[in-house]
Amino acid sequence: MSTESRNEFYAWLRDAHAMEEQAVKTLEAQAERLEHYPQMRTRIEQHVEETRGQARRLETCLDGIDEGTSMWKDLGGKLASMGQTIGGSMVSDEAVKGCVSSYAFEHFEIANYRALIAAAKALGEQTVRDVCEQNLAEELAMAQWLEENLGDVTRTFLSRTEQGDSEAKR
Hints:
Blueprint: H1 3-32, H2 38-64, H3 71-88, H4 94-123, H5 126-162
Helix pairs in contact: 1-2, 1-3, 1-4, 2-5, 4-5
């Protein structure tokens, strides 16, 4: 493969690292506000730790190919996360919308890892492929959990709303 193809691949790896850095910040903020949704909070806190591990593994891959992460991409992701956090905290149905948006973001991550795996395979980057497959498995598990629990989160929110709970969103 050409140098240009490798450079694109390295840029995608840096994008994935920034994506995981953004996810950590978003998930941490979301978990803080889910005191009335303990199962969701616990699973999100678990996924924060998985996501930190994903970012570390990607950073190790980048360091191993002498590329390193992108401070600007990481910063951009963190700023985007801050905007999502502020916006999410202002809606009355934050728990439901947070679950929906997390489900959508998980699928964004899944698609990115599938593309990275294909690129790593084409470029003969087995170590990176292995890391991306491990990250993909964690993202698939989180997406499945969200899919299985979205109904419960929604019903809990509606029940709390019906009971006149002014903090139903949390």
